[in-house]
Amino acid sequence: MSYRVAVSSTDGKVVNQHFGRTAKFWILEVENDGKYKCVDLRNVEHCCKGADHNDAALNSVIDGIEDCGYVLVSKIGDGARQRLEARNIEAYELPGIISESVEDLVKHLEIKKLVDSFVFESQE
Questions:
Q1: Residue 116 in 3-state DSSP?
Q2: Closest C-alpha to 10, from 27, 25, 32, 30
Q3: Domain range for residue 14?
Q4: Degrees (nearest 5) of the Cα angle 16, 86, 74?
Q5: Residues 6+ positions from 67 with CB-CB distance below 8 Å
Q6: Number of domains composing the chain
Q7: What's the predicted TM-score (pTM) here?
Q8: Which of 12, 25, 52, 95 has the fewest CB neighbours in a 10 Å radius?
């Protein structure tokens, strides 16, 4: 099983953009074992102008990555995070080399899956 991750990066090598200032997302197809490939590059209009957010632009950015379950960014505000979560997209602040950030995401998701299965089993 694989999943899509939108990576906020200026160069396709490093997670280095604030969500609101992102101009392009590198779309990765990630396998459960952590192997991944870039399947798309999507240009978006950044939705943050200083301290203000443009709601229409924010919705447009989210529309542009709605097929992704996860977003990797260097930083994200609470408002944008909540909007993503409302669309079933989880945001992670994992700045650094993309391969290492993807590895960290995969580890986190594995741990989350174990915790969720333990909690479910203990409630039975």
A1: helix
A2: 25
A3: 2-123
A4: 10
A5: 4
A6: 1
A7: 0.89
A8: 52
